[in-house]
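Bumping with the actual sequence this time:
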Amino acid sequence: MYNILVVDDDKEIVKAIEIYLKREGYNVIKAYDGLEAVKKVNENLVHLVILDIMMPNKDGLSALKEIRKEKSIPIILLSAKSEDYDKIAGLDIGADDYITKPFNPLELVARVNSSIRRYVKLGSIENSNNNEKSEKIYKVGELELNDDTKKVIADGKDIKLTATEYNILKFLLKNKGKVYSISEIYENVWNEDSLAAENIIAVHIRHIREKIEINPKEPKYLKVIWGIGYKIEDIK
């Protein structure tokens, strides 16, 4: 059973989210401000965090920044604001996804399920038979992703990616040379319909570039095809 930390200063929202998550078989840990959220993450085995942005004591973005120093668990932001600034700021700090209030609880559950699947596939949770070896390696030039060990190496350096970044890179590497639109990337990685995914994908792509490219402004591997999408260059 996976443990989901739900953080919001509105106790009714926390209670409502808890009901839907428990129906899906998740165990729910609750917190009502950013300080309590950081404390609960440090004291419990947490597999995913649902984190409101506007809270007393410590806001969600500050709590996110502190959690990200030590943890690579998926984090989904909740925000009553619709401005792109809050969403992009959260993604820049390290959030995996966001959803704007008011939200459809079924959509939130779908996002949670998708994030947990990506996290499990990355191997951050012991959820596979270690006796089975897949040894799937995807490589272009000096960029290599080993899907058995979950290691990424770029130009001789070990690269640390979040679960979401890893799965985006893996998808593009498996299909090197092919251009994918933002919607196609989202639908293939999240396994759900793409709705206003531009900011999510753009920020994650930028983070991947900053980690794998020697010069992110002149990328060798991860290219943008303006007006169309992104691809991994097929370097021999």
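The tokens above came from a reply further down the thread. Helices lie at 11-23, 34-43, 60-68, 84-93, 105-121, 163-174, 182-190, 198-212.
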